[in-house]
Write a structure and sequence with these properties.
heterotrimer; A: about 180 residues; Arc Repressor Mutant, subunit A; 2 domains; two-stranded antiparallel ribbon; two-stranded antiparallel sheet; 9 helices; B: about 250 residues; mainly alpha; 3-stranded antiparallel β-sheet; about 5% strand; rod-shaped
Chain lengths: ~180, ~250, ~180
């Protein structure tokens, strides 16, 4: 198979799945006839080819996939006016604690937020496959430890947890501390 | 006129939002995520350094706040717990410190640590919400694959056929070896091709069976295939007159 | 909005919607700024643009949509592999005899295999368009003559029957014959 034909196959595979496809899976398209490095070249060719279109080829946590560019959303929203609901602040804070402090128990989340965590919020993110139980803390009651999934990273267009926006220090506390430290 | 000094800095007028009218409290209460959120709100609204909380003022505002809320809401236990904590901190700060426990940590330290951690998470939550989200801020292509309902058919490759042939041949060899002979494949192929061409037709001119431009080898093979077809009585080759047109017809079309 | 930009919007909408989209709906993308006839022009441009790819833009009863070209199936099926079905040895032998000895009658196949050939096997390969009746032998009963089809060659990635693996040297039987041949 020539490489133009192969690139068409890769492009078609990526356009027909919502799930990202890893390099290893892409190599399966050709029954191992084409090696992953060559497929990587095709992916970068495809990325250039699509540069001037409404979609872009991106690498996320579980592989490669196309996504629409943000500037398209204005138009696409007119076609499909029902938008997914925005999450409440309580839900977002819970998600942020799990994302930034994982793995955490429900108790950890409650300590940080200062209020009880509703089971519904955890269930909601679990059913969206954004969080999952990755173990149990070895304390009385063996509470579940929650962490984010690769689906969460994919849906937020990130390839790893380190792509999360860095936490900001919100107060002069740390500046002062630094000064104190350097003073001693 | 200097109203107050904070960290030695002169404040010339009172912050506009220092006073919250009680009737506004109820509306605002629903927007708070809990006592820490409310405390943060009060501290930030006072433009105060979180590290240097004036406990008396903060506690008074907090208590005012939950007092109003209590009259109209079933107040969550966390708010009352926080009120108790604030009062405890305040009272510990009022007590004179005996010299021997001077090194004791500022009673506000733990509260400050929690407030800072919570504020960080609050900002993180907003940052998360600002990230592009699949289905909300961008869409994914998902062209349906039309044939997925079709049952999958077994795949074979030419080597499978060769193995199958070898298995037939070796079995036949044991029974009756002389019946199996190797034939030139391309003659067989052309025999099938000629029969297909003759299908449904009365007769085809002999020369039409030879495609121009296919080369001498193909001509010879086609000719041999024709002879073989005639030998197997699958076609008839007819020439009405000497040097007349030669016609080929399939024997099944009689 | 210029028409290149608009065409990109139409393309993006079609690539991200599973259901066909009608002209009227497509016009909604532009809040009525672009008239359906102009969108029709874009659609025919897009159809040409996609002609050499793995997808094709088609008009169905309820509108326009992309669909995958059939020749992509072979590759895409490898992405979600199920355990591939296999033909029985009897079926493979029958097919081998037809492939190597065509045209043959059912009687020929039975003579060679030494056992009866089930009608089901022949029907199965006929319905897959791998074999066809190319004539009848002029003997009592006028049995059908089977041969392989060009579809068979395509599916096995061969351009002619002579691409079948040669049988020489695979078996002492043929070696003997080769010797005989060279001796004559």
């Amino acid at each position: 198979m020539n490489s133009d034909k192969a690139r068409i196959v890769v492009e078609t595979a990526l356009l027909t799945t919502e799930e990202p496809i890893s390099l290893v899976e892409l190599a399966r398209l050709f029954d191992g006839e084409i090696a992953p490095p060559e497929i990587e070249n095709m992916l970068s060719d495809l990325r250039c080819k699509w540069a001037d279109s409404g979609l872009e080829l991106v690498e996320v946590s579980s592989g490669w996939r196309f996504r629409t560019k943000p500037e398209m959303q204005k138009f696409l929203d007119r076609l499909n006016p029902k938008k997914p609901p925005r999450y409440s602040m309580a839900a977002l804070e819970t998600l942020a604690i799990i994302a930034y402090r994982q793995p955490v128990t429900r108790g950890d989340i409650e300590d940080i937020r200062g209020v009880a965590v509703s089971t519904q919020i955890l269930k909601m993110f679990e059913s969206r496959c954004w969080i999952e139980v990755v173990g149990h803390r070895d304390v009385p009651g063996r509470p579940s430890l929650y962490a984010t999934t690769s689906r969460f990273l994919d849906d937020l267009n990130m390839s790893s947890i380190s792509d999360l926006p860095p936490l900001q220090n919100t107060n002069s506390l740390f500046e002062q501390q630094d000064n104190n430290d350097s003073g001693t | 006129m200097i109203v107050a000094k904070i960290h030695g800095e002169a404040i010339l007028e009172l912050p506009q939002d220092l006073y919250i009218p009680p009737e506004a409290l109820e509306v605002v209460l629903d927007t708070f995520e809990g006592p820490l959120d409310l405390l943060l709100y009060l501290i930030r609204k006072h433009n105060l350094d979180i590290l240097d909380i004036r406990m008396a003022e903060l506690t008074r505002q907090y208590l005012d706040y939950i007092d109003v809320a209590k009259q109209r809401h079933e107040l969550a236990a966390e708010y009352l717990l926080m009120a108790a904590l604030l009062i405890e901190i305040k009272s510990r700060m009022l007590l004179p410190k005996p010299a021997e426990i001077e090194a004791e940590e500022d009673p506000r330290a733990e509260l400050v640590r929690r407030l800072l951690e919570y504020e960080k998470i609050k900002q993180a939550a907003l940052m998360l919400d600002a990230l592009d989200q699949a289905g909300r801020d961008f869409l994914l292509p998902g062209i349906p694959r039309d044939w997925l309902d079709m049952p999958e058919l077994p795949g074979i490759d030419p080597e499978d056929l060769r193995q199958a042939w070898i298995s037939v041949v070796s079995r036949v060899k044991m029974i009756n070896p002389h019946k199996v002979e190797l034939e030139e494949l391309s003659i067989r192929e052309h025999m099938a091709r000629i029969l297909k061409k003759l299908q449904g037709l009365d007769a085809v001119e002999f020369v039409e069976l030879f495609e121009a431009g296919t080369g001498l080898a193909i001509f010879i093979v086609t000719f041999l295939a024709l002879l073989e077809l005639a030998r197997e009585n699958l076609v008839s080759i007819v020439q009405a007159d000497v040097f007349g047109t030669i016609y080929v017809k399939a024997n099944n079309e009689f």
